[in-house]
Amino acid sequence: MTPAPHRSHTDDLLSFIAASPSPYHVVASAAQRLEKAGFRELRGTDDWTGATGGLFVSRAGALIAWYVPEDAPAHTPFRIVGTHTDSPNLRIKPAPDTGTSGWRQIGVEIYGGVPLNTWLDRDLGISGRLALRGPDGVPRNRLVQIDEPLLRVPQLAIHLDRSVNEGVALDRQRHIAPIWALGDPREGELLRRVAAAAGEDPADVLGWDLMLHDIQPPGYLGVDREFVVASRLDNQVSVHAGVTALVDAATGASQPGFIPVLAAFDHEEVGSGSETGAQSPLLERILSRSVSARGGSDEDWSRALAGAFCVSADMAHAVHPNYSERHDPDHRPLPNGGPTIKVNVNQRYATDSTGIAMFTAAAERAGAPWQPFVSNNAMPCGTSIGPLTAARLGVTTVDVGVPGLSMHSARELCGVRDPGHLAAILTTIMVGD
Questions:
Q1: Same domain as 426, residue 361
Q2: 374-393 exposure pattern, b = at least 16 Cβ within 10 A, e = fewer
Q3: How many domains does the chain have?
Q4: By 3-state DSSP, what share of the chain in percent is helix, strand and coil, each rounded to 5?
Q5: What CATH number has the domain bearing residue 206?
């Protein structure tokens, strides 16, 4: 079995993932942990003047949290951990009730880079949020999580498609609607079922952001249980590590020498171009306002950014044993070897030598291993929120991530030790020891 400290961290990670099937649930789970540690939520319409201690702002599927030590000057530099809350999945269409050939089905839209074959023949539940009638005409939101086997995308039997093992791609347009009952489509049936699960009147539902999730719980794999297997490891591993590090920095024996910040954005998997994505001014405006609320000037804001450092934490690729030729021959990260530092000279990652030095120095102080990662020159490189944050704020940024397999799959894998290693390094960076 794995050492207790690593197992303790991953046990908590698995609980976090199980409670967070949608970006909105990720924010709620993070906020709950922050509030338990003494953080308080600020609204945009609140007066932030003089606010210190643990603070956070939530907006739909995004959360920005930070800790201001007592008597911290307004120009105190930031230590930012950037992550994202969303994962590729199947999202329910506005007019969902459909069907054919005597089957009732649900219309879905593909969100992000989904390996569709991984969603076949899985028991699927529904999660997300409902927008409901509220007092004075202001809508209210209600989270919903149905961890029941309601839907399934059935694979065509091999007898009806002998080419299924020849790499024929799933038809993205015709064969993705999950089944959930027999009979003709019934308009409003899905809405009634989801509203009932949320304890709401369907007539009060004005809109929704609903998606499907695999109801198989997260767990451990391997002869010595050395692997974590779960949905949405990308990127809840990093969100959970960021929350853990921020709480540890805020509640530790010594006050941090910086302003530690967690920025958990939504919509990274589709380009971050939304009011809650990394391309938006959300982080910049909140951090700038926090400086002003402590009596800071434009000069203080500039000084706080000039001394800032950002770690963009997102899952990374471990070398695949069956496709090792797809990886760089000299950079082959493995699970449980520590987080990777991701480098791309074409700036798909924002890492440079300064960022590498700062992260590796923190890893040494935390007693945690790390590994280098670079993509094979013949393969296109992915990206993360790192370059977006670096370009928007103009701060030194390093892209890192826990290495794993089956990225974007309905069920992913990583090493049991690496999430704890990442959290320990991020804590060291936030505290500034």
A1: yes
A2: bbeeeeebbbbbbbbbbebb
A3: 2
A4: 30, 30, 40
A5: 2.30.250.10
Task: Kindly compute the dihedral angle of the four CA atoms of residues 372, 377, 380, 382, in this order, to the nearest 10 degrees.
Answer: 10
Residue 223 falls inside a structural domain: no
Q: C-alpha 131: how far from its chain's center?
A: 22
Q: Determine the pLDDT at residue 296.
A: 97
Q: Are residues 322 and 384 in the same domain?
A: yes
* One-character DSSP codes across 166-194: GTPPP-TTTS-PPEEEESS--TTHHHHHH
Claim to verify: residue 261 and residue 362 sit in the same structural domain: yes
Q: Domain of residue 209: give its range.
A: 89-214
Q: Give pLDDT tens digits for 28-57.
A: 999 999 999 999 999 999 999 999 999 999
Domain ends where: 160, 183, 214? 214
**Shared domain check, 308 and 236:** yes
Pick from 287, 248, 227: which is nearest to 64 by CA?
287
Using alpha carbons, select from 371, 378, 360, 357 the residue that is nearest to residue 425.
Answer: 360
Q: pLDDT per residue over 363-402, tens digit each? A: 999 999 999 999 999 888 888 999 999 999 999 999 999 9
Whether residue 122 sits in one domain with residue 241: no
Q: Are residues 203 and 246 in the same domain?
A: no
What CATH number is associated with residue 334?
3.40.630.10
For the chain, the residue count is 433
For 132-178, write each residue's pLDDT tens digit.
Answer: 998 888 899 999 999 999 999 999 898 988 777 775 444 444 568 99
Give the pLDDT score at 4: 61
Q: What is the pLDDT of residues 199-211, one digit of tens each?
A: 999 999 999 999 9
Domain identity same for 30 and 74: yes
pTM over 0.70: yes
Residue that has been written with the tokens 């794995």 in this structure: 2
Q: Pick the last residue of a domain from 188, 214, 240.
A: 214
Count CB atoms within 10 A of the CB of residue 242: 30
Q: Which two tokens stand for residue 377?
A: 């020159």
- For 230, the token pair is 């779960």
How high is the pLDDT of residue 1?
A: 42
Contact (Cβ atoms closer than 8 angstroms) between residue 37 and residue 247: yes
* Same domain as 112, residue 50: no
226: in domain? no
How would you class 277 by CB atoms within 10 Å of its CB: exposed for 0-12, middle for 13-18, buried for 19 or more?
A: buried
**For 314-395, where are the E strands, in sequence order?**
316-317, 340-343, 371-374
